[in-house]
Specification:
434 residues; three-stranded antiparallel beta sheet; 17 helices; 3 strands
């Protein structure tokens, strides 16, 4: 099907979702979001064990980064961090909920440290710090992933990951695990935010789980401060720039022949500027859309409250882009990961019985595979934006006393989402290098 059909269809789908939601009674949407199906209670005490196991696995991966194969497709460290963790776990969090809380490699060591030094339990991160530490660290992570000349190099990645774990553990000691993981450590912040879209909810203090509709937990989210709002916007803009930076359009704009790509080191400066600009542009357009919407609705609420609440509607879009952008790499590199984790040091081991697994790179090749993948990616982007409109409406009903005001406040934001749908589908269809 021609690209124009997808672009037009995606725009119509998001626009139609706005028209439908504009006439739905707010009480009905609220009742739907509140539906829960009780599941089971979980033993929170197991977190210590699972975290210590995760830490041991992390330490093994760091050792493999230094001592294992130099090939990024044979060494388990880059495959685990870039494929299983950053892509796979993000999607698992978005579907099911906060699994990261159980495998966080800092929680177990922190519990051990506080058992020896009880005074460490009382440390707190100052409120004025907000999410700024997480935002700064996330930008550094995005820069390393997207712009650094060799983020896949096992030894280079081992140094980066090992130093980051140590710095974050020192921050946990200085500011306490709860505060630092909620507002300082960017992976924990990111995973917690995207897990709000997941279908499993754990209620404290009993830790009894329940099943809910995708995105239902976002309807009850509290407004984020400016730092948290910018953190979510960065999560979307960084993935978008990753796609944009490989397009013939972007390379041509920077005077580079995409058929003779000179390598990452040649575009470090321009790509750094591009990453900053797309983040600034998305933030500016989002804030403008919220401001115009509040003006249309005649709202007298503080602008920071509206912007900090409505930004939660970005979560399904960010997840959709994550899925679409990394799908083909995940399908291939995930197979390489199965092989590498069985023989982490390239010494002939077969720990999990998968060392001899034959990687089928052809899974993403050929007309039929390309057609299926492209449609899955397009459907994810369109579906993510439709769900974002739904969630934005639910949040708008919390801000405005009437359905009319809520609908009016969403007009500019819906136009932004339609535009981003078209942009996302264009990224999937335009030629890319590499």
């Amino acid at each position: 099907m021609p690209t124009g059909y997808y672009l037009t269809g995606g725009a119509i789908a998001v626009a139609a979702s706005f028209l439908v939601l504009a006439i739905l009674p707010p009480a009905l949407l609220k009742r739907i979001a509140a539906k829960r199906l009780a599941l089971f209670a979980v033993n929170n005490g197991l977190r210590l064990l699972t975290s210590l196991i995760a830490f041991a696995i992390f330490a093994t991966l760091i050792a493999a980064g230094f001592l294992g194969s130099r090939d990024p497709l044979s060494n388990p460290l880059p495959l685990t961090i870039w494929t299983l963790l950053w892509v796979g776990l993000t999607l698992v969090q978005g579907v099911f909920g906060n699994l990261w809380a159980w495998i966080n490699p800092w929680y177990g060591p922190w519990r051990v440290a506080t058992a020896i030094f009880p005074a460490l339990r009382d440390r707190r991160l100052p409120q004025w710090a907000g999410y700024w530490p997480a935002l700064i660290l996330f930008f550094a992570f995005a820069w390393f992933e997207l712009i650094d000349p060799a983020p896949d190099d096992p030894a280079r990645l081992a140094w980066a990951a090992g130093i980051y774990w140590l710095m974050s553990f020192l921050a946990v000691i200085a500011f306490g695990y709860e505060d630092w993981s909620r507002r300082g450590e960017f992976l924990s912040v990111f995973f917690r935010m995207v897990s709000r879209f997941g279908m499993v909810e754990a209620a404290r203090p009993e830790n009894r789980t329940s099943l809910c509709l995708p995105g239902a937990k976002l309807w009850a989210a509290n407004p984020l401060p400016a730092s948290g709002m910018f953190f979510l916007l960065l999560s979307l803009s960084s993935v978008s720039f990753d796609g944009l930076s490989k397009t013939f359009f972007w390379l041509g704009l920077n005077g580079i022949n995409p058929l003779e790509f000179p390598g990452r080191s040649a575009v470090m400066t321009t790509n750094t500027i591009g990453l900053v600009l797309i983040f600034a542009a998305l933030s500016a357009v989002y804030l403008l859309a919220v401001l115009l919407g509040e003006r249309l609705a005649g709202s007298r609420l503080p602008f920071a409250r509206s912007a900090g609440l409505l930004v939660w509607s970005i979560v399904p879009i960010a997840l959709a882009y994550h899925f679409s952008h990394y799908l083909t790499a995940f399908l291939v590199n995930g197979q390489y990961a199965l092989v590498a984790i069985s023989d982490p040091f390239s010494s002939g081991w077969d720990v999990f019985g998968t060392a001899g697994f034959q990687v089928g790179a052809g899974i993403v090749a050929g007309y039929q595979s390309a057609w299926a993948l492209w449609n899955a990616q397009a459907a994810a982007i369109i579906g993510g934006h439709v769900l974002a409109v739904l969630i934005a409406h639910g949040l708008a009903y919390r801000l405005h006393p009437t359905a009319r005001q809520a609908a009016l406040s969403q007009l500019p934001l819906t136009i932004l989402m339609i535009g981003y749908t078209v942009f996302g589908l264009w990224l999937l269809s335009t030629p890319t290098a590499g």
